[in-house]
## 1
Amino acid sequence: MPRSDFQVVIGLEVHAQLLTTSKLFSGASTSFGGAPNAHTSIVCLGLPGVLPVLNQQAVELAIRAGLALECTVAERSEWSRKHYFYPDLPKGYQITQYEFPVCLGGRVTFDGADGEKSVRLTRIHMEEDAGKLVHEGSVSLVDLNRAGTPLLEIVSEPDLRSADDAVEYLKSLRDILVWIGVNDGNLEEGSFRCDANVSVMRHGSNTFGTRCELKNLNSFRFIKQAIEIEATRQVEIIESGGKVDQETRLFDPQRAETRSMRSKEDAHDYRYFPDPDLPPLLLSKDRIEGERAKQPELPRARRRRYVEALGLPAYDAGVLTADRAMSEFFERCLAEVGDAKQVSNWFMGELSRLLNESKSTISQVKFTPAQFGAVLKAVKDSVVSGPGAKELFADLFATGKEPSVIIQEKGLAQVNDDGPLLEAIAAAMAESPKNVESYRGGNTKIVGYFVGQVMKKVGGKGNPKRINELLVEKLKG
């Protein structure tokens, strides 16, 4: 990181792949992987005479993202051609939005090391992805499977002042996009990646330094390392009397360094102009407001509600809102039971353990919220004991059978009838007369021994509370 008299300044450009089944301007598949050039069409290949057709699902997802990120969704936006030559861009230009993007402004709020922070967004625009080059020895091959894949580019203002905050910003942004079903959040497959614009300035200064762009960072660990290494590099240049050049750089994690890729282009270098094949994108107020009405409660707001309204610990709230499917299932189970902490304890404990052991997800569970509620009611009504409840829940998780059926089949019903309990107490006392005398001599802690002995005699199915009450009565003589 920069020395104490310097401050790093960071702005991020996130490329988030939209969760559509087909590409932005063609019907080709967006599936990840597959044989090279298998997911292409004449539009992806840029053949002469082909015309793009806009994917309406991509537009809906862009609106959804803009609303979730507190942007102003434009009723009119335009498509532009961004020209540059590269082998994985067969048309010789990328269709994007330049002067009039689909979303303006907005913000992302996150918890930094020193409290809540908010980063302003400049814009969100839609664009198509390029293909990729595959290098094999001295030969480079072109794979156009990703060409035309729909992306959102989410551009932040240079509001970030540390690599750690940059990572937290990205995690919060990814959580929101995954939560609302816009992006799958997969950094390894490149469906969520970012470029970082990094500069340094002295503390107290209001003038930003010359920025360098770090391209295609695809892990949070590398993002943090790359920003810190680049900031240190710039400080060393300045302190040695040099000048930082505006350029695009690549991060090499093996060598822990950034290195020059090319001089940084300005907008005029790309010769942007409106795409003549695509009319302006017009969105009615009704369409925008209709999407707004469908917006779910976002993870940050839900975490706060769980803490403030439900009284859950912040850690529990964080775990329960890390995945939307888990949170939604928790909400449905809570509606059945009514006790948030009790439901949370089961989710954080037994349910998490069983999910981990079975390597399954919450969407694969076989039981319903009503069945979950029946388990907790059986505990509350002393139908099953604490250990019996765990056995009952494990069987419910594995089979999805009705709890009442499992209780009967497994013989889990707790003995609440005083008759059998009193017989077991009498037998336990008869077998341990010295311990009886010890209790009557003042050693009341020994009642725990007798509870254990009675539980053994009734096969672990006795009600511990009732056994304890009866024992104290009998041991007093």
## 2
Amino acid sequence: MTYLAKNQEYAIYSLSFNYGQRHKYELNAAKKLAYRIGAAKHLVLNIELDKIGGSALTDNIDVPKTDKKPEHNNEIPVTYVPARNTIFLSYALAWAEVVGASHIFIGVNALDYSGYPDCRPEYIKAYEKMARLATKTGVEGTTKIKIVTPLINLTKAEIIKKGIALGIDYSLTHSCYDPSIDGKACGLCESCVLRKKGFLEAGVKDPTIYE
């Protein structure tokens, strides 16, 4: 998302969350990418969602593993973190008010995703409406907050191709739900399966180090 925003000549204020997830490798990756792209500022906020639990990413629940593309029904998977995007967006909204930002970029995806309710277009539209009602800048009309979701209708392959065109070094990125103690991707969680599928369909070599 930072590369897309940078390509559109936005000043970058990047935000990551240490929310009690199983590992911190994604935080290290985000920090490196923020530095590489020249972000005006990069914040890491601490939120103890592990004290709430209820997810395989924040609780003592096994991360599901498979070597096949996930097949979804109407059941929301155990990797869903309760209200995570709502919480994340609320922090981003607060920071946007402080720095005077009018656009909040978030990398939600409604195609190759895990059935999470807070990745749907209707959710984003509702949150954007709320943001304009619940902020000083929205009420005063000084800033009209826009939630930007350029990846929402793209397949993983399309996302990877777009990233390559923007010059992203995918070896610096991390998406595994359950990496090894030394940071290698498990290769079998849903995120890894979708990532491998995306690189394969994009015809791009996957630089991820798997167990």
## 3
Amino acid sequence: MREDILLSGPVAFLAEEMGIAPSERLLAYQAWWETEGWPIALAIDQMRTPHLRQFSAQGERIDEISYPPSYAYLLSAGYSAGIIAEVAERHDLRLSYALGFITSYYDPGLYCPYTVTLSTWAPLYKYFMGQRREAFLGILTRREAPFGQGATWMTEIGGGSDLGAHVHTMARKDSGEAWRLEGEKYFASNVGAELSVVAARPEGSAPGLKGIALFAVPKERTGGGRNYFVRRLKDKIGTRSVPTGEVELRQSEAYLVGEAHHGIYYILEVLNFSRVANAVGVVAHGLHAIAQAYRFAQQRRVFGQFLVEQPLFRAEIERHYQRLRWAGALAWLSEQWLETVWLEKPPYSQRYALFRLLTHLAKFWTAQVALEAAHWGVEVWGGLGILGEFPAERFVRELMVTNIWEGTRHRHLLDGWEVLQRYNLMDVLPTLWDVRGVDPSLLEDLSVALQKPLEEIALQIEPLLGRLAQAIGQITAEQRSYSVLA
């Protein structure tokens, strides 16, 4: 482990371990976070959940999300740096995710608005050709205030993992291009956004996943007035820097994105943008957790010796750093594959299937590795680690939430297994990553298990895909190779 890299912040890690050049923009953004952003982020977290003001003095429903003025300043930094605009103008996903890595190092909750804004822009850019296309895209790509934000609302009261069974919001065709949505979204992040993409069922559509379509829902109706309502905000243990609430859609004006029968594909594309962001972001926050643990250990004297000098501490931090390094390599590998496939449309290529596999592996494994690192960081701090006045406990809170964002562990394990099996990816995996170099029996064990019924090998999936995730991450980190299919 390079201690100078660990203590230098996220840009040094990106440069030295992930091979991403430390541009002036990235260095300036990190410097801003160190001097201004992080103190503001800590203060906002301690203030807990933002406030919802539902009615004006005249009794009108306004559903205004209230944050301290410093929050707008905090949020503006990423938009001004081009975290969305650079993707829209130059398709520069790498810069966007690098800015997100830095953001999440300090505040994963704040990375959520940027992530869902990008995940709103992408399907509209690819599939929405309605009369309001340029207006909608323009809202989301401003470099200067007032910034327009996006949101991705799929989850209803039954949960988000089984969308086929739990999307009940109905869509009815109105005049012209407009539709009307009626329903509720139970876990809506970045509530208050100017434009959202929402899962709903057109009247008469098929049951299950095939009957779900994707709609763009603006905050304001064409003739004025609120287009959706916020029932309440959630009081969360972490990610307090993004308002999450329950949204009511009451004859809400909406616009169909693409073709109705392809809605589930668009939704999965939306989720994959966010899953890559989640993987990149949790590695950053886990890295910050062990960096703070290291700094504390430099000052903590135990049995006549600084903690940082003791063999058990050094072995543990080395292990966590290496696992975060491998997890980071896997996350950035999935980002590079996203760069090559994100413009594909259904039906997708085998290359897109490989991207999906990488994304499922990265989402579940990076979250696990980062949360373990943060939990160990609390142990280093001892009793101080569970006190709200010190940062150690916050790293755990934040990573507990991001561990289930965009799909729980089991969802990604089952989906990863399905894509590995359906698209015969075992035929191409050995040509891309020689995992035998770190786990000689892995390919054979995978091949054997893939021939058996799911109910027979269900308990083997997590150990097998966990080994595969670590092997690909380790190979990529050691070879510094992020190559993708030509």
